[in-house]
Amino acid sequence: MGLIRWIAPMALVAGLAGVHTIAFAADAAKGKIAFEKNGCWQCHGTVGQGANTGPKLAPDPKPLSFIQVFIRNSNGPMPPYMQAMLSDADLADIHAYLESVPKSPDYKSIPLLNQ
Fold first, then answer.
1. What Rg do the C-alpha atoms of the chain give, in angstroms?
2. Which of 12, 92, 106, 109 has the most neighbouring CB atoms within 10 Å?
3. Residue 60 confidence (pLDDT) above 90
């Protein structure tokens, strides 16, 4: 239910702010460094799996434009990260890193769990 309360306001903010998809190549390796350097891992886990107070971000993160609007305009437990703190390039790299996180294997494919 909490996510639903964010979708409409974030869509409105994105439309009003004229947010566009970031138009440069993102680098997952740089994104992992930025994810760690900016402390994202402290609430979202080392690979975005969700931990402590932060929700799961990976695998299958929300679209970059959604994440950008949320991160820039957050008014909940997560503080907003303005562009001076986290550049658009770093944000795109973090998104690329989250997209690169593989899904967990199906438990049926793990022999030890199926004996």
1. 16
2. 92
3. yes
